[in-house]
Structures are given as structure tokens and as C-alpha cells.
Amino acid sequence: MSSYETTRHYFDRAARLMGISQNMQTLLLTPERELKVQVALERDNGEIATFIGFRVQHDSARGPMKGGLRFHHEVDGDEVLALATLMTWKNAVVNIPYGGAKGGIAVNVHDLSHGELERLSRKFVDEIHDMVGPDKDIPAPDMGTGAQVMAWFMNQYQKFHGFNPACVTGKPVELHGAEGREEATGRGVVIVTEALLKRVKQPVEGTTVAIQGFGNVGSHAAGFLHEKGAKILGVSDASGGVWNPEGLDVPALRAHAAEHEHVAGFGGGEAIANDDLLTSAVDVLIPAALGNVLTAGNAPHIRAKYIIEAANNPTEPEADEHFDRTGIVVVPDILANAGGVTVSYFEWVQNRQHFKWELSRVRQELDRILLNSFDKTWDIAEDKKVSLRTAAYLLGIGRVGRATVLGGI
Ligand code: NAD
Description:
By secondary structure, the chain is an alpha/beta fold. 47% of the residues lie in helices and 17% in strands. α1 packs parallel to α3, α6 (181-199) packs across α7 and α12 crosses α13 (359-384).
């Protein structure tokens, strides 16, 4: 099933429960604008390389659209549309005043030099700057991009439009970025994990965890969980995985990954294949890399009791149904990884007010928003006797639907 078919499946299930008319469903699903652009790059050796860039603006009923920029060789129109749609529901679940968007370039960033990555990022801004901006559509980091790409984005955007740091979020703290943005998605994953464990009366201390993906999100989630006494037994990334039944030394692993850019070769554990990590015997499984990794094929072998979707779209519908049937609790992506966009919202607010918050305030506001959203989702799930995913969709779609009706077309 394609990424879009997956998000569409979850939308349809919630829309049926809500009794939304077919016309309203079509209005809510149809993206407002889809853009596909040529991004030409002069390589360091003088050759010309041509890449395809995307930006999909899905819905603006609740405010300017917001969503990340992904630089990855598997980026395509279907995936960007799926992720833009997810952003609409996600922003509504955490009740921040944004609609949803997403973008990216189909490129393998590991094939680019630093200078090539900068020229590619700037060229992409040249192509899309007219349709984005602080009151229209505000990009942010995602897979393959980070604070440096956001800094280039802002700098290039300002060449056309003048000083305007709120045009993009996830910038370096030294350049109008927010304290706590980089850690925010991983921290949010941990806030909802703790909230779930509290509901099921399992202490965080001693809870065993496996994490797929050790980039921005996975490594911060591992760090915070380790601090709280959870045992991270295994992590993996594109290079392979490491496993230690006594619990990995997460600070040492983070230092290794920072130095070598991957986890493979870490001395404090044994190697484990990515597929084996997903089916390992742990309490909590956190997919924090790619989409569609939990499938009909591996779902019957998953031994975790709880799945926290740090990645976007990691679970295919057949796997989701299996988890529902067998009592594996899934905290869905549109709630579990919403910490990033929430702190991006704080960054945008600070940029607009030219007033900088302390890290303690960022964390406090993030905790408040995510715990409220988790509790609301949990209560809907109990009340309607549905999964947390369906409950989150009911919450998000309900809010977007009401804004659409109130605003009119
Ligand atoms: P990143 O680029 O920093 O890290 C991605 C990680 O995934 C890397 O460790 C990489 O090696 C690993 N990976 C790639 N291919 C893999 C494979 N085949 N098997 C195992 N691991 C693999 O990206 P990120 O920002 O940490 O994003 C990770 C996920 O979280 C994505 O799905 C993204 O959409 C989602 N997300 C990110 C944010 C954010 O703020 N960065 C916010 C919300 C959601």
C-alpha cells in the first residue's frame, strides 16, 4: 500500500465513524496546492545534476500551513502528499493554529558535499519562495535536513522578501532558532511514552525499549528515556543495529554516533539486523526512521506491548489491525511525534515577537500541550471504544472540519 493509501485508510475509518458526508470528505482530503519543481545543481566537478523538488500544501482552514522538508532518495509526490495530509491532522491534534504541508527533494544527501547541499537548498528556495512565508506556509526540518539547511533557507528567502526569520523553523539557536527545538520531537516521544506507561501502571524505570533510527528523533528519545531509567536494549540505523540485553550505555552510543555518523561498530553491544530489532522482546518499540516498516509480514512477530510511532507513517493498515486485535497499544504518529511541530510553533511565535524564551519555558509549554493532547486522545478512545489512532484522527479531523465549516469556502 502506498503512503497516501495508508493515511487515506485511517482518514476513511474515522470519517465513517463521524458520519462526515462524501462531499465534505472530498473537501477535507483534496490538497489546496501541489508543486513539483526542477532543482538544478552545479556539482563540485562542474557537471550539472537535476533533482525534483516537491511542496504540497494540504489544508489551511486552521491557519498557515506547516510541515517539514525531507531530503531523501525515496521522496516522491505520493509520499509528500501523504505526509502533508498527516501534518494537517497532527497540527489539529495538538491544537496549534496551523494547517498542514510537506516538501522535499528526491536526493541522497550522502552523495553531496557540504557546498553542493547548500547550493541545492538555496536553489529549492529560489523555486518555491513565492508560495511559502510566515503567513502562508512555514517549512521545518525532517529526514536529511536539519538546522543548517533551515539557516540557508532563511537566508535565501530573505534575499527576496527582507528580514523574516519566521519564514522557516528549526533554525540554529544562534540564528533565530528556539532553545529546545532540536530535542523536541524526541522529547515529545518520551512525554507520550511516559503518559501511556502511567495509564497502564507500568513504571518507566526498568521498561525495556528498542528504537529503529538514531538520527535527530531516535537519539534524543533514547537519551531522555535513558535518563528516566528505561533500559534501551537495542537501536539501529541505516548502517545496522546494536543490542545489549543489559541495556545500552546511551551517552556513549550517542558520542559514537556523533563521531562516526552511525551506530554500527559501537563496542558496547552486539550487532543486530534491522528486521530482528523490530521483532525483539522489549516492552516498547519506537520506530523512528522510515515509513511502512511495520507490515502484514512482520506484525505477527512483533513482541513489544507498546509501539510509539516517532516516525511518520511507520505502520501499514494490515499491521495496525493486527495490533488492535492482539492488544498491542499504538500511540500514533500524529500524536507521538508532534513535539517537533509544537516547538516549531513556539519558534515562530518568538520570531514574530522578537522575544526569546528560556529552555525551561519551552519544555514546560511542550509538556503541557502534549499531555493535554494525550489525555484528550485517551479519553476519546475509551469513550468511543476505538484505538488511540482512530481517536487521534477523530480529534484532528473534527477540529479541521469545524474550522472549515465555520470559515466557509
Ligand atoms: P534523521 O535524518 O535525523 O534520522 C533518520 C535515521 O533513520 C538515521 O539514523 C538513519 O540512519 C535511519 N535510517 C534510514 N534508513 C533506515 C533504514 N532502512 N533502517 C533503519 N534506520 C534507517 O531524521 P529524523 O529527523 O530523526 O526523522 C526520523 C523520523 O521522524 C522520520 O519519519 C520523520 O518524518 C519523523 N519526524 C521527524 C521530526 C523532526 O523534528 N525531525 C518531526 C516529526 C517526525
